[in-house]
Design brief:
With 297 residues, the protein is mainly beta. Helices cover 11% and strands 37% of the residues. Strands 1, 2, 3, 4, 5, 6, 7, 8 and 9 form a 9-stranded mixed β-sheet that branches. A 5-stranded mixed β-sheet has the order 10-11-13-16-17. A 4-stranded mixed β-sheet has the order 12-14-15-18, with no helix packed on it. Strand 8 and strand 9 form a beta hairpin.
């Protein structure tokens, strides 16, 4: 903004000392001084209404003022650290865009009302949660309804996330309707081991739920187990070697919550090289979605 204050309107050499001076010249000077004061008052008032001040104090509060057409560099945000927590945590969006939690038990998130932006304005907050025990779950607020189908381990009917592995997880929450609904994004994809890892399953072993594929070979009849999974999880089993094709070297895996049983456990029997199957945990049960040579019972 260009200032309207014009110091050139004021005659600094008037009145002249030691001689009579016209009162009109003095009146003109006073009038121009008053005009410039009025301009200054108006411009200062406008600045105080839009810059980062409160009276004479700097408070760094723009009070919702719009900033646009700006080049910004070296931006940072404060971290709100909740430390060790369990139970319900009241997330205040106004406190900070990045908030961290170390779960000592199951955690329930709740977004503080009136802390998020007004309808028609976009706002976001990222939650980092450290899971040190897979028995600890994370419950999202009921308003989290958008994009939740893509979150691994999330039961969309209860908004509870069950973790298959310990580690650090990050979730981004976004709203533009004053918190009526939230979009959730699993921002660090910490759960990817569901899709890109494998193990050599030992005899009498428990299949690792944090790994997608379990493969094995047998020299004698043996067994293994598969525990309950996380909804949406995929698990693959494959026999890559055995001594012969007799039952003397079968692998029998006992499966918790078997989808091919009315309730309880079921078994999968692998008899020869190449026997393999793909399971997916759907509605709290393991279902076979692909099979080559395995026997289900």
């Amino acid at each position: 903004m260009t200032s309207q204050i014009n110091p050139n309107l004021i005659n600094g050499a008037y009145p002249v000392a030691g001689q009579d001076n016209s009162t009109k010249g003095m009146r003109d000077n006073f009038t121009n001084i008053k005009t410039n004061f009025n301009y200054a008052a108006s411009e200062i008032t406008a600045l105080q209404a839009s810059v980062v001040t409160s009276g004479s104090s700097v408070v760094n509060d723009l009070a919702g003022a719009l900033i646009f057409d700006a080049e910004i560099q070296n931006i940072s945000a404060p971290i709100v650290s909740w430390g060790n927590q369990s139970g319900t945590i009241q997330i205040n969006w106004a406190a900070g865009l990045y908030q961290t939690i170390i779960a000592t038990g199951s955690v329930v998130l709740n977004f503080v009302a009136d802390s998020y932006p007004a309808a028609g304005i976009y706002g976001q907050v990222k939650i980092k949660i450290t899971i040190n025990n897979v028995a600890h779950t994370l419950t999202l607020p009921t308003q989290v309804t958008v994009n939740n189908q893509g979150i691994q381990g999330l039961n969309t009917s209860t908004n509870v996330i069950t973790f298959a592995a310990t580690g650090v997880y990050e979730f981004l929450f976004e709203t533009s309707d004053n918190g009526a609904t939230f979009i959730v994004v699993e921002s660090n994809k910490r759960m990817q081991p569901f899709n890109n890892s494998s193990e050599n399953l030992a005899a009498l072993g428990a299949a690792n739920l944090a790994l997608t594929t379990s493969y094995f070979s047998t020299v004698a009849a043996t067994t293994a187990t598969l525990a309950a999974g996380v909804n949406g999880q995929v698990k693959v089993f494959a026999m890559y070697a055995d001594i012969d094709d007799s039952s003397l070297d079968n692998m029998v895996i006992t499966v918790t919550n078997a989808g091919w049983k009315t309730s309880g456990t079921g078994t999968i029997t692998f008899n020869t090289i190449g026997d393999a199957c793909t399971l997916q945990y759907i509605n709290s049960k393991w279902f076979c979605i692909g099979n080559n040579g395995c026997v289900f019972a």
